[in-house]
Amino acid sequence: MVSMLTRKLLRDLWGAKAQIITIAAVVASGMAAFCASLSTYESLGRMQTQYYEKTRFAHVFAAARRAPQALASRFVELAGVVDADTTLSFDAQLDMPGVIEPMVARLIALPKGGDGRGLRMNRLTLMHGRWLDPGNAHEVLVNQSFAKARGIELGAQLGVLMNGKRERLTVVGVVLSPEYVFSIQPGGGDEKSFGIFWMQHERLAAAFNMEGAFNRVTLRLSRGASEAAVIDALDRLLDPYGATGAFGRSEQLSHRAITQEINELRVFGLVLPSVFLGVAMFLLNVVLGRQIGTQRGQIAVLKALGCPDARIGLHYLLFVMVIVCLGLVCGLAAGLWLGQLLTGLYTQYFHFPVADYELKPYIVWMGTAASVIAALAAAWRALVKVVRLPPAEAMQPARPASFRATLMERLGLGAWMAPAVRLVLRDIERRPSRAVLSTVGIACAVAILISGTWWRDAIHYLIDVEIPLRERQDVSLALVEPASRSAIYDVWHLPGVLRAEGVRSAPVRLSHGHRSDRTELTGLPADGTLRQLLGQQGDPMAVPDHGVVLSHLLARRLAAVPGDWVRIEFLQGERRVHTLPVVALAYESMGLSAYMRRDALNRLLGEGDSISGARVRLDAAHREAFLQDIKATPRVAFAVELGPLMRNFRETSARNILVFTSVLSVLAGIIALGVVYNNARIALAERQWELASLRVLGFTRAQVSALLLGELGLELALALPLGWALGYALSWAMLQAITPETFEIPFIISPATYAWASVVILVAALISAWIVRRRVDRLDLVSALKVRE
Question: CA–CA separation, 68 vs 474, rounded Å?
Answer without folding.
Answer: 40
